[in-house]
Amino acid sequence: QAEAEYRAIAVAQDELDKVQWIYEPDDLDPDASSYVYANYPKEETHNYGDNDQYSSTFIINASSELIDDSGSMKRYQVAVSVLNQNVTPEVFITLEYVKSYTY
Predict the structure, then answer these.
(1) Count of CB atoms within 10 A of residue 67's CB?
(2) How far is CA 23 from the centre of its chain?
(3) Using 50, 70 and 90 to split pLDDT, how confident is the model at 5?
(4) CA-wise closest residue to 96 among 22, 34, 29, 9
(5) How remote is the C-alpha of 36 from its chain's centroid?
(6) In the predicted model, is pLDDT for residue 38 greater than 90?
């Protein structure tokens, strides 16, 4: 169970790490055509172990919302949730991150 939780956290952290490379605020705006989370939830399968003999499938959901727009700064709160149904009980985690843009 602990290993499944660790893997779910690692998958969520990988998604949040991508946010650091989003340079356009519109990409985090749910109303913009370039919204990066428009096609979520998504499913990923990760293989591991010697010769990839094990695998886990994760359902990843992500969203962002504008939490501050002062005119000179925009701040978005990004939430990433990961579900692993390959174990009993299921593992579900959520990580959050705040991305700021200044003008």
Answers:
(1) 11
(2) 17
(3) very high
(4) 9
(5) 11
(6) yes
Count of alpha carbons within 13 angstroms of residue 30, beta-carbon side: 11
DSSP string, the chain: -HHHHHHHHHHHHHHHHHHTT---GGGG-TTSTT-TTTT-SEEEEEEESGGG-EEEEEEEEEEEEEEEE-SSEEEEEEEEEEEE-SSSS-EEEEEEEEEEEE-
Residue range 25-38: mean pLDDT, rounded: 96
pLDDT at site 103 = 83
- The pair of three-digit structure tokens given for residue 48, joined into one six-digit string: 């591991």
What's the CA gap between 69 and 71, in Å, rounded? 6
Q: Is the predicted pLDDT of residue 12 greater than 90, yes or no?
A: yes
d(CA 17, CA 24): 15
* Residue 84: how many other CB atoms lie within 10 Å: 19
Q: Are 59 and 43 in contact (CB under 8 A)?
A: yes
